[in-house]
């Protein structure tokens, strides 16, 4: 996760492409991603939570940036898979661009309630999976 954030701060889209598979890689436009990354001023990455279950992992993060004088944030739960010892980004659920919202994985959520990542699954079968 941190290496991908750093790659975006440096507009190293080649690295971004090499570290994606599945739904994330489908329709990825490297030229558009590079233009987007270059016009932002990246201000920091905060990893809020990380979970791993076998060769699957989830990372909740907030990546802060500014554009055109306004502050923004990407708040996401990213899904990764590990193949041959290398981690690949496969999908992500954007949670909010509101910097004051509490992180989804750290809120008190009942095991049988729907997961706050909006997957449609129960929390215990989604982001609430224990290591």
How is this structure best described in words?
- This protein is of the alpha+beta class and 131 residues long.
- It has one domain (2-103): Nuclear Transport Factor 2, Chain: A (Roll), CATH 3.10.450.50.
- Helices cover 18% and strands 38% of the residues.
- The chain has helices spanning 2-9, 13-18, 30-38, and strands spanning 41-53, 56-67, 70-83, 86-96.
- The chain has a 4-stranded antiparallel sheet, with helices on one face.
- A hairpin with a 2-residue loop joins strand 2 and strand 3 (70-83).
- The two termini are 18 Å apart.
- The model is unreliable at 98-107 (pLDDT under 50).
Write a brief structural summary:
The chain is of the alpha+beta class. It contains three helices and four strands.
Shape: globular
Strand ordering within the main sheet? 1-2-3-4
Helix content: 10-25%
Mean pLDDT: 83
The tally of strands reads: 4
| Proper CATH architecture | Roll
CATH topology: Nuclear Transport Factor 2, Chain: A
Q: Which class do the helix and strand fractions yield?
A: alpha+beta
The figure for the number of domains is 1
β-sheet strand percentage: 35-45%
Question: What is the straight-line distance between the termini?
Answer: 18 Å
**How is the main sheet built?**
4 strands, antiparallel
Order of helices and strands: HHHEEEE
- Low-pLDDT ranges: 98-107
CATH C-level: Alpha Beta
Rg, Cα atoms, Å = 15 Å
Q: What's the number of helices?
A: 3
